[in-house]
UniProtKB/TrEMBL annotation:
The keyword Transferase applies. One of its GO terms (molecular function) is phosphoribosylglycinamide formyltransferase activity. This is Phosphoribosylglycinamide formyltransferase. The gene is purN. Keywords: Purine biosynthesis, Transferase. N(1)-(5-phospho-beta-D-ribosyl)glycinamide binds at G14, S15, N16. The lineage of its organism: Bacteria, Pseudomonadati, Pseudomonadota, Alphaproteobacteria, Hyphomicrobiales. Belongs to the GART family.
Amino acid sequence: MSRKRTVVLISGRGSNMTALIAAAADPSYPAEIVGVISDRANAAGLGIAQSRGIATKVIQRADHPSKDAYDAAIDAALTGFGADIVALAGYMRILGRGLVEKWQGRMVNIHPALLPAFKGLDTHARALRAGVRIHGCSVHFVTPEMDDGPIIAQAAVPVMVGDNEDTLAARVLKVEHRLYPLALGLVAEGKARMEKGHTVLAHFADDADNATSMVMAPDPLREESDLEQLARITP
Ligand code: GRF
């Protein structure tokens, strides 16, 4: 099996990137992380990638005369890395239509909400304001419209009584780190493909496999709640 060469794009702390690097440390994982690109020279994730022996590149918008020139530099770097797949992980820029269309079906992103709810920024604060009882994260194929591409996999967590933005973000982030390696693995293996604007998922050998692979809902009873609290918030 040839592992899919994957480049991760980051802007900051890089905890999802770290989770992907950790998954890819297993030689049987279908993707290998061959490079990390950041649009910010001070992104903490760059140091983490370097300490894992992964090549890094900083490509800043301010160093390019136009958005098109910036996108072209990203594209050239991806080609330079010999990328098969691009994984956006906390990359805070919107890539141009031309670049996204070129990589469509081979570019994925993780978003900290259960899409199509709460596209954009401040998802946890907005989820709390909306009063949703279930929140989570999504991995999706990237299309030119922000946070709009076909969903590959999602993970849900409960919103607990007394949550604030930070506690909720931390609970979601924990499942992001499990979901992203799972979803990238599906894409790298060809078990999740984008066709005509939709995600096509391979048929799984049995239903149990299918259920655990596609929807992850960490057991709130075991993880961080007690039965009484769950009973109070669950209709
Ligand atoms: C994550 O919550 C991710 O879903 C969002 O940005 C955050 C990045 O965190 N797109 P990190 O850099 O992976 O730690």
